């Protein structure tokens, strides 16, 4: 009965049972060898065990069997064994020396189990860990011992593969992160989940970023083991840092260029603004200022431009380009000129779902372009003035000479006519002089002057003309005004131009008030009249060459005056209210 049981076990056991003689030949092989390796047992009896083992495993297997024969328990050991078809399978072996009365030592009993599938899974896991840069670990809390996978050693840069202690692990944690890692380990002892990012310093000095996490295994109420994974996230951190730097650079570039980006979710009618768009609108970044497109247009678009913006949006939702300029109202009440470019995204049904794009503050750009155009006008006017002045001056001199001679002989009304001719010729000469100054200003010599003396001389010169036009001039100047560096004749020309314009602005009479103050280390003069004032649309053009509001004006006086003040490092501003009058403010720096 017993032999039948042994026979049944022998026929059905999945492992291979084998006995090796002292000379290394198979003495016995169980029938299961046929299912696992394709050999009949009788084919292997008497053959050498070494002929079936993979060449790379022969030395390892020989050492293991020798130790077993020497009476040592080597536990489980693995090796590759050749199948009948030539491929190798992995087997896990456990061996023991057989002692008998007839044979003294040497014979070995072994049990081999096919672990090929398990080995393949382990290899796949190793490769998966290597590809994903993820290692696995296990920490025996009671023994304070760590077990690492091969990838863990690679991540830490260890090539010795010796057992890892907690102290050795902590020694390679970045000093700035060590306390945080220790704290995370201590939390594990209280049952918290282990999850922490830290930096690792390899033996070579290379710095790596890792993320570790683990789960706890309890033994009763006590924590027995913590196992988990550790992933090398260095490349991710570097990409993250590069992305953060790129975003910061983009924000800086957008801030410098006054360029922001926006996104309108059409389906939900919700708008997103970048920080620069908030700055353009005069709002703190991130403040919820608008919720829909209609609200945005009503709050932040100039009333005169709203219809244009709405029309452009409607066209963009139908596929047209979205590219426009309009005036945007800031939170502080100021208007800025912006350039907006957008693109519409459509779903598979052709429905518009998003409109996104950029917005740029081009106020300064347009102002600069306007200044360039004005400068170009001034340059052309100067070139034209030089040509005209030289062409007119020579015949004008001849005409003035002959008029002077003929006027001496004239009698009665003829003398009056010659007087008018001389007056008009003088007017032409004055215009020519202004043109020449515009084309090429005369060489100036700056000297220290008292602005009150210069202004007194001008008032003496124009006093009679003001009286004839029923205009009174009052000048209240501070007695302690500082001296200024100037060319007196040029400043006289500026003051004459300002006062004459004020006189002509009050055909029915009035008063011109002149006052002074000391500001920012300089002298500030204000000339105020009681004329009809200048409309805003005309005030914006005052100072452009040949632009004038007077029927017989040349349009050069204000421009020449501004150029003189600018040459003195000063400023000249004109403000006016229709029906109340005009004020001209001139600032000149002190010595």
TrEMBL record:
Residues 75-127, 194-245, 322-374 form the PAC domain. It catalyses: ATP + protein L-histidine = ADP + protein N-phospho-L-histidine. It comes from the Bacteria. Keywords: ATP-binding, Kinase, Nucleotide-binding, Phosphoprotein, Transferase, Two-component regulatory system. InterPro entries: HATPase_C_sf, HATPase_dom, His_kinase_dom, HisK_dim/P_dom, HisK_dim/P_sf, PAC, PAS, PAS-assoc_C. Gene3D superfamilies: 1.10.287.130, 2.10.70.100, Histidine kinase-like ATPase, C-terminal domain, PAS domain. Residues 387-591 form the Histidine kinase domain. PROSITE patterns: HIS_KIN, PAC, PAS. PANTHER family: PAC DOMAIN-CONTAINING PROTEIN, PHYTOCHROME-LIKE PROTEIN CPH1. NCBIfam families: sensory_box. This is histidine kinase. It comes from Alicyclobacillus fastidiosus.
């Amino acid at each position: 009965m017993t032999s039948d049981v042994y026979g049944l076990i022998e026929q059905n056991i999945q492992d291979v049972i084998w006995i090796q003689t002292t000379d290394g030949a198979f003495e016995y092989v169980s029938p299961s060898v046929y299912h696992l390796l394709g050999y009949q047992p009788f084919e292997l009896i008497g053959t050498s065990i070494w002929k079936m083992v993979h060449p790379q495993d022969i030395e390892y297997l020989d050492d293991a069997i020798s130790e077993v024969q020497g009476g040592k328990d080597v536990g489980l050991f693995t090796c590759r064994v050749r199948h009948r078809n030539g491929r190798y399978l992995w087997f896990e072996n456990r061996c023991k020396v057989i002692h008998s009365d007839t044979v003294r030592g040497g014979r070995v009993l072994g049990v081999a189990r096919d672990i090929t599938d398990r080995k393949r899974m382990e290899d796949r896991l190793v490769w998966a860990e290597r590809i994903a840069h993820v290692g696995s670990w296990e920490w025996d809390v009671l023994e304070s011992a760590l077990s690492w996978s091969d990838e863990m050693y690679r991540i830490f840069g260890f090539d010795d593969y010796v057992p890892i202690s907690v102290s050795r692990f902590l020694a390679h944690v970045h000093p700035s992160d060590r306390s945080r890692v220790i704290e995370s380990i201590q939390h594990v002892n209280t049952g918290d989940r282990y999850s922490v990012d830290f930096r690792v310093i390899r033996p070579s000095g290379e710095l790596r970023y890792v993320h570790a996490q683990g789960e706890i295994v309890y033994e009763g109420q006590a924590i027995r083991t913590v196992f988990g994974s550790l992933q090398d996230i260095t490349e991710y951190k570097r990409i993250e840092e590069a992305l953060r730097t790129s975003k910061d650079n983009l924000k800086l570039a957008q801030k410098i260029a006054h360029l922001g980006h926006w996104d309108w979710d059409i389906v939900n009618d919700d708008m997103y603004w970048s920080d620069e768009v908030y700055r353009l609108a005069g709002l703190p970044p991130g403040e919820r200022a608008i919720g829909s497109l209609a609200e945005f247009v009503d709050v932040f678009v100039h009333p005169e431009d709203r219809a244009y913006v709405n029309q452009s949006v409607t066209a963009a939702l139908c596929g047209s380009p979205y590219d426009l300029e309009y005036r945007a109202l800031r939170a502080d009440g100021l208007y800025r000129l912006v350039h907006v470019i957008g693109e519409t995204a459509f779903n598979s049904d052709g429905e518009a779902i998003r409109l996104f794009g950029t917005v740029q503050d081009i106020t300064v750009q347009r102002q600069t372009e306007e200044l360039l155009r004005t400068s170009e006008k001034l340059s052309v006017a100067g070139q034209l003035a030089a040509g005209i002045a030289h062409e007119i001056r020579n015949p004008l001199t001849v005409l003035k000479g002959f008029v002077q001679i003929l006027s001496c002989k004239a009698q009665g009304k003829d003398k009056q006519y010659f007087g008018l001719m001389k007056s008009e010729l003088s007017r032409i000469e004055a215009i020519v002089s202004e043109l020449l100054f515009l084309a090429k200003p005369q060489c100036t010599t700056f000297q220290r002057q008292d602005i009150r003396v210069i202004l007194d001389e001008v008032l003496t010169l124009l006093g009679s003309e003001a009286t004839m036009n029923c205009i009174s001039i009052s000048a209240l100047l501070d007695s302690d005004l500082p001296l200024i560096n100037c060319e007196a004749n040029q400043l006289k020309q500026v003051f004459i131009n300002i006062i004459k314009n004020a006189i002509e602005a009050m055909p029915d009479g009035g008063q011109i008030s002149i006052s002074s103050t000391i500001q920012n280390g300089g002298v500030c003069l204000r000339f105020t009249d009681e004329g009809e004032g200048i409309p805003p649309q005309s005030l914006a053009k005052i100072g452009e060459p040949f632009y004038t509001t007077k029927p017989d004006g040349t349009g050069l006086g204000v421009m020449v005056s501004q150029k003189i003040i600018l040459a003195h490092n000063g400023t000249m501003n004109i403000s006016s209210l229709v029906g109340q009058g005009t004020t001209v403010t001139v600032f000149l720096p002190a010595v």
